[in-house]
Structures are given as C-alpha cells and as structure tokens.
Amino acid sequence: MSLLVDTSVWSLALRRDQPELDPAVAALRRALAGQDLVATTGVVLQEILQGAVHGTTRDRVLEHFGRLQYVAPDRDDHVAAAELRNGCRQHGVQLGTIDALIAALTIRHGLTLLTTDQDFTFAARWVPLPLWRAP
To answer: Which domain CATH number covers 74?
Structure first.
C-alpha cells in the first residue's frame, strides 16, 4: 500500500511519552518497517516542525521525514484542492485549505491517506479520497 500520512498520525507517533496504541500509528509503524511507500508533503512537515519545541524532537522529525517519498504540489494541485474544497462546502462539509491540498495530493498520486482527522472522513463522502481503514 502507498500511504500519505497526515499530521494527525505523525503527531501521535512522535509523542515523547509512549504513544497510545492507536491503529493508525500501528499502521504507520508497519508501513515504515515493511515495503510500503510512505509519502509526505511540505505542509505536513511544516505542521510537525511547528509543534516540535525541542531540538532533539526537531532532529528526529527531520531524520524520519528525510527517508520518505516527497510529493510537492504544483499549480494544478492547488486548483484541484480549491475545487475539492468548494465541492465539499456545497455538501455542508468544511474542509480546511491545507486539508484540501493534502486530499488533492493523495488523489493525484494514487495514494491512500492515513489520518485520524475526521474532516477527511466527511470529505470522502463527496470526493474520491482513498482513506486507510483499520482492519
């Protein structure tokens, strides 16, 4: 499976105290240990680094993220994200700008989004967003 991992999962996985055995964190660990492709994008890295207060945490994040496949948005991705967000809004679903971009990148690159953020679950009712589901 090829995953784009959302900030919500990374935040749980990188906690200094023992992360809860959340199924999404377990899936991330399996993917990193196995042959699965794990991807990220700049806004996810930025959000994680903004929350990394200590230098050792920052270094650990940069080390982890340096091993991942990186997908960068282009103009078409931003257009797709705006259309995706507008489509969700027409159905009463509020999807943030960054979340819309993450969803657009997931769709474009044929990835599955690994997230604990329920906003994506609501959006997936109206757009073809592949979400990871706990077995």
So the answer is: 3.40.50.1010
pLDDT tens across 53-75, in order?
677 778 888 988 999 999 999 99
Strand order of the β-sheet with 112-114 is 69-70, 37-40, 2-5, 112-114
Q: Among 87, 91, 92, 117, which residue's Cα sits nearest to residue 104?
A: 87
What are the counts of helices (DSSP H) followed by strands (DSSP E) for the chain?
A: 7, 4
Q: Which among 126, 54, 122, 53 is positioned nearest to 87, based on CA atoms?
A: 126
Please count the structural domains in the chain.
Answer: 1
Q: What pLDDT score was predicted for residue 16?
A: 63
Question: What single string gives the DSSP state of each residue in 83-107?
Answer: HHHHHHHHTT----HHHHHHHHHHH
